[in-house]
Each structure stands twice: as structure tokens, then as C-alpha cells.
TrEMBL record:
This is Ferredoxin. The lineage of its organism: Bacteria, Pseudomonadati, Pseudomonadota, Gammaproteobacteria, Oceanospirillales. Residues 1-29, 30-59 form the 4Fe-4S ferredoxin-type domain. GO terms for molecular function: 3 iron, 4 sulfur cluster binding; 4 iron, 4 sulfur cluster binding; electron transfer activity; metal ion binding. It comes from Marinomonas spartinae. Pfam families: DUF3470, Fer4.
Length: 106
């Protein structure tokens, strides 16, 4: 599956959701999660993310491994999102800030 990682937190640009053929993105307050059981590994979402926050699980950076379980768990409890919306208002300021996990809202 593809995994949404740290740099999505507090950005949430949502360009990714528009291209997903199986609509497997789920939306929290400041992060999105991919349901790994629904993702068909098409790779369409990866280049769409302006924050480069989406990785194939095979190419996941070592320090992002915690996000495998987070995508799995959060996609179970959050509502589905299929249409792009405005990014969070201070997305540009948070884009590229490292280790935003402490800011993840559930
Ligand atoms: Fe959706 Fe394809 Fe991205 Fe998986 S890889 S989340 S199926 S767009
Ligand atoms: Fe997040 Fe990138 Fe999608 S910032 S909402 S993974 S476009």
C-alpha cells in the first residue's frame, strides 16, 4: 500500500484524494490516512502531493515506519474524503517542518 507520512500533518493539501481510483483516503483534522486494505498500489497519488508526503510502503523512509500503523488505524475511524478542499490555512509554513507527529490531531 501507499502510506501518508509526516509532512502531511498540518498541511493537508488534499490533491491526493482526487486521483485515487478506489477512494481510499480518510480525513482527520490535520492529516489524511490511506486505508491499506483498499489501496491498489496504482501510485497515482504519490506525484500529486505538493508536500511529497506519500510513499510506497516499499520505499518508505526508515524514520517514517510509524506511519504504516497510523494509516491503518486512522483510516478505520475517520470519514472518507474524495474531493479536494482548501489546504489548512498555514500549510505553506508547516510544509517541510520535520517531525510533526506531536501535532497530529485525532
Ligand atoms: Fe489510491 Fe492509488 Fe494512492 Fe493507493 S496508490 S491511495 S489506490 S491513488
Ligand atoms: Fe496530505 Fe499531500 Fe494529500 S499533504 S492531504 S498527502 S496531497
Amino acid at each position: 500500500a501507499f502510506i501518508v507520512t509526516d509532512n502531511c500533518i498540518r498541511c493537508k493539501y488534499t490533491d491526493c484524494v482526487e486521483v485515487c481510483p478506489v477512494d481510499c483516503f480518510y480525513e482527520g483534522p490535520n492529516f489524511l490516512a490511506i486505508n491499506p486494505d483498499e489501496c491498489i498500489d496504482c501510485a497515482l497519488c504519490e506525484p500529486e502531493c505538493p508536500a511529497n508526503a506519500i510513499f510506497s510502503e516499499d520505499e518508505l523512509p526508515e524514520d517514517q515506519e510509524v506511519f504504516v500503523e497510523l494509516n491503518q488505524d486512522l483510516s478505520q475511524i475517520w470519514p472518507n474524503i474524495t474531493e479536494k478542499k482548501e489546504a489548512l490555512p498555514d500549510a505553506a509554513e508547516w510544509d517541510g517542518v520535520e517531525d510533526k507527529l506531536e501535532h497530529l490531531e485525532r
